[in-house]
From TrEMBL, chains A, B:
Protein name as it appears in the record: Orotidine 5'-phosphate decarboxylase
Catalytic activity: orotidine 5'-phosphate + H(+) = UMP + CO2
InterPro entries in the cross-refs: Aldolase_TIM, OMPdecase_type-2, OMPdeCOase_dom, RibuloseP-bd_barrel
Molecular function terms from GO: orotidine-5'-phosphate decarboxylase activity
Catalytic residues of the enzyme: K105
UniProt keyword Lyase, yes or no: yes
Organism (species): [Clostridium] polysaccharolyticum
Length: 308, 308
């Protein structure tokens, strides 16, 4: 799956992942009204609204980008109907041949991490049958519990030829409180990064490992250091656009081959029609605004990489 | 809710939480056969089996213990039907007046952490209606992303008079890889513990704060240090029993008032009938074996505390 991701990035010339993190207030009124007319102002109505919203965006951008990253929290808040919308979104994106990165940030110990891995990238046994509960291609994993927490994901990923992205340095303002602490003279994110590199050596694709890292766009100097520390690691970069990161900040997240990083934008793509820049599209054509935002992001990133 | 938890612990003289982490192979054949006869060997069948299994245990122990801790990973692996079983379990335990600690170990940034908090301890707005998606009383939270990731949970908990337990030092063998790293001369778990103490000061109950900590039973010396560092923090202690912790190791997790800690046992209670010690009960009476295991655990803990 890492090979597929790399090939799609090369073919489309687009190191871009669209974050499908729908807030209900991003969903245009015409979609909400239709969903609520059918299901009422209920969790089912909310689930239907975000699913229809997602479908419009996926249809509009699926020929431009290699991957999507649905953030499960945004679905989980609507309970079972929200998680049904998450599953429909994952399945639909896979039909459209998009690589699906489940942004789930799970992490636990031993058999419990194994159960999360089974849920999202593996198969569960029930009697004589096997089922895939959610079936993303990659998931994000929290490393705070150490190797015990991460290894069960890697074991399942080896069987399934799937992968993970481990949180190393997150994009938020307070990420440094623990991640930047100096331990043995090195910030914790470097220690975690080094482990990601090691874990990756046990599960390599053709040119990159199946064990990626999350490094926020908002800390470009740290991105540069981590790029060198983890040469075979794909870096998933959140924080572009709405959180402040821009293309020129991100060139050092890439390797000399022009690969090695994939940049996420969520609000900047899915709620583009709410920005002044794309207001001309209007709420009805929200998906066309998302398409234009992807094209602009691609130009920004490729321009920055060309001038590297 | 922390006041209710403390009162129940005092009234029942039982600082015990039963971990409802059902593996399908813990479920006795008679329950599985019935569930599969009705729903087939499907995710629905698995969901029904673990729900019926849980119900039996809850009925057998609910008068002895103050709280349960369902581990959501064990349900998530069965997809939507598994999560429906999680929800049924949470709702049923609340009907039985048990305090429900959702072991979800979520953690993200800003609005995303807010969405997780909404999902599990808050209310989500859909049009003019509000809904509770899952509705636990407490949840466990991963602190790796810093204050940005934890504060949204505390904000929701303040409104709802609910609480969290923050992972500080986990019970697994590799927990030290990152958590024990010395930063500014102190192990990371102490730095996180200090933050938990601070976060808790903003959301206090009568005698303890609504912001608890997870500290594994398998590291008693660390438990002693953290107890002193976080005097108003309730400590949730996993790792008793199956993972190796025993009552005499745990006396220093408690304060002089005999309070301040609640000890979790999962396999040791819910799969008690599979142990030689309780084999006499047999699979049909698995819930009676669980009840006996709770009584024995209570005796072990109270004995250790009396001899403190």
């Amino acid at each position: 799956m890492i090979n597929k991701l790399v090939k799609k990035i090369e073919d489309l010339q687009a190191p871009i992942v669209a974050g499908l993190d729908p807030m209900l207030n991003y969903v245009p009124d015409h979609i909400k009204e239709k969903a609520f007319a059918e299901y009422g102002e209920t969790l089912e109505g909310a689930g239907e609204a975000i699913w229809q919203f997602n479908k419009g965006i996926v249809d509009a951008v699926c020929d431009l980008i290699p991957a999507v990253k649905p953030q499960i929290a945004m679905y989980e808040q609507f309970g079972i109907p929200g998680l049904q919308a998450f599953k429909k979104t994952v399945d639909y994106c896979k039909e459209k041949d998009l690589v699906v990165i489940g942004d789930i940030k799970r992490g636990d110990i031993g058999s419990t991490s194994g159960a999360y891995a089974t849920a999202h990238v593996g198969q569960v046994q029930v009697g004589s049958n096997k089922f895939r509960a959610f079936d993303e291609d990659f998931v994000t994993v929290n490393p705070y519990l150490g190797t015990d927490g991460v290894k069960p994901f890697i074991e399942v990923c080896k069987e399934e030829k799937k992968g993970i992205f481990v949180l190393v340095k997150t994009s938020n303002p307070s990420s440094g409180e623990f991640q930047d602490r100096l331990a043995d003279g090195k910030p914790l994110y470097e220690i975690v990064g080094k482990m990601v590199d090691e874990w990756g050596q046990s599960h390599m694709g053709d040119s990159y490992s199946y064990v990626g890292a999350v490094v926020g766009a908002t800390y470009p100097e740290i991105g540069k250091v981590l790029r060198q520390l983890m040469p075979k690691t794909y870096i998933l970069v959140p924080g572009y656009g709405a959180q402040g990161g821009k293309g020129s900040d991100l060139v050092h997240y890439f390797n000399k081959d022009g690969l090695g990083a994939i940049v996420n934008s969520s609000r900047g793509i899915i709620a583009a029609y709410k920005q002044d820049k794309y207001a001309r599209f209007g709420a009805e054509a929200y998906a066309d605004a998302s398409r234009q935002a992807v094209l602009d992001m691609k130009e920004d990133l490729l321009g920055a990489l060309a001038g590297k």
